[in-house]
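Here is one chain, start to finish.
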Amino acid sequence: MDVRILDCTLRDGGYYNKWDFDSDLVNDYLLAMASAGVDYVELGLRQFRNDQYLGASAYTTYEYLARLSLPDGPTYGVMVDAKTILASGDSQEECVNALFRDRNEEKISLVRIAAHFHEVSECFQMVCALKAKGYLVGLNIMQASLRGSSELTAITKLVSDWNKVDVLYFADSLGSMGADDIERVYKAMRCSWSGDIGFHAHNNIGEAIANVNCAIALGCVWVDGTVTGMGRGAGNAEIEYLLQQPRIQFKAKELDDLSGLVINYFEPLKKHHGWGLSMIYYSSAKLGIHPSYIQELCSEVNLDRRQIPKIIGDLGLLEHPHVFAKSTLDNVISKTNNDVAI
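Its structure:
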């Protein structure tokens, strides 16, 4: 089975540094991905600009990519969040035309759409618009483990009937899936989808690499990783470990550049930002809490860290702890502060 490795460091890792990567890091990263034999490199998000300051990989514009030297070897792509298009107020075709040129004018060949389960059925027009422009199109179903098998089979059947999507992903968005969960979701999707299936792991309970191996054993032919696992919350499967797994180690051509990248750039970044497995990420994953709650919680410099276990417990009692809202976190922190004051 030909397993395809996709690295999404510049996209998923951007949740820690606002997608503002140093240009030297980006150049060395691209060389390391090519020399390591990585199949696909996701260069960032593509979305409409807003007033918040975000780095180049938050938008990954045509103009930005024109300034990059992309080594031969990997296929390059970007991710677009379905809500970017669905909430715009314009038609999906108009949004796709505003965000993307035709494939033969761009340096990217792959576009992955990230969609929550309830958004998947609404993505048909954007998928068609991207295919008409010549792109390889992936569709990522986020928080797939929260859905029943019959729901997953039904939505996968719908996507299959479109006959437009090239690879259908499921994401362990909360980082809480185990082998049984992966098998259930994979088999439910396979009931109505004969094409490629991909898996995106998160490491909140320390099982990202094991879960990727499980997904491959089941039949997933696309798997994701990031350098040192840099990604939202506890992060992802570490690409430097992923490339050395028995099932896929033949992919690795030369890891010296990747080793240098880890030592020179990403280990210092990890020390500064603090992604990776920890007790609070583990506990929150078991409670089904969205990892952005924990990432935001850890960045609260004025918070008494002794209050964190109580805040996590209160977040776990929410009706929808898997849905992140900064206002909700602020309310829970405020309630905890008031309880302590009393």
